[in-house]
Amino acid sequence: MDTGTFSAKSLLDDLFDNGILFDSGVDGLYGRSGVFEEVIERFERLVTRLGAPDKATRIHFPPGMSRATLEKSGYMKSFPQLAGCVHSFMGNEREHAKLLGMMAAGEDWTELQQPTQVALTPAACYPLYPTVAARGPVPAEGLLFELSSYCFRHEPSQDPARMQLFRMREFVRIGAADQVSAFRESWLERGKAMIESLGLPCEVDLANDPFFGRGGKMMANNQRDQGLKFELLIPVTSEEKPTACLSFNYHQDHFGQTWGLQFADGSLCHSACVGFGLERVALALFRHHGPDVNAWPAAARAALWDA
Predict the structure, then answer these.
(1) Is 8-84+122-306 a domain of CATH 3.30.930.10?
(2) Helix 8-17 and helix 278-289, axial crossing angle in degrees, nearest 10
(3) Membrane-spanning residues where (predicted)?
(4) In the list 144, 229, 254, 290, which could disulfide-bond 56, CB 3.0-4.6 Å?
């Protein structure tokens, strides 16, 4: 794999040609080779080693979550364009025959499906907050969790770094404002050092989420003005527009208010999360070091294979 300048499409074709990813016929939905999965597994071990001193509580949620939880979280207000919900056939035999007839005729049969109570998880941390709130008051020292989940965002693209189904690894800190701010600052330093240890060019920059609509522009500006979101950027498909591979987010007391996350004295908790886009980091490694992992730079191999 040439490590020169790539367009998103040419990088995707190169990944297909080298048997690293496999085309499914749907943009943003790909099969992964064994070596691609091994790189992700080894990167996750590196993240685990880096976060081990913090002694976070590990929780793994499935890629689906309660639709009611998604609605209450405010996600649909801010990112309706990215959300996905699960629909299923709930009809009788007569309706089933109709469905089969519509399929045979090449007609749209999805009108015979109805929404279930399941939504696709948009970020690994979303199911966490109501789970923690249900346990009662947060201790004075706060809480720290380590999460992992497949996530879904509806943004089909031939940019391989913009998959519709992808994995996120997150650390989430819940506590007082100073506690969560210190947590984020610590990971801003650790995250950058970790990526640099893999021989990847990167920079940390102020960012904002893709809030929807005209009102979303104001929300994005507010997020940037308050310094609530930073991203670690690596050139993957573009030097001019590098890809966000890690994100560092301070939610203030948004989830505290939404879910009633409180300390024993009734004061609201703040939260922050650090997210690792696992596929994106793997893509960055293949983009910069080539398809043969045995030929990768010694420093990258030492960090992933030898530690």
Answers:
(1) yes
(2) 80
(3) none
(4) 144
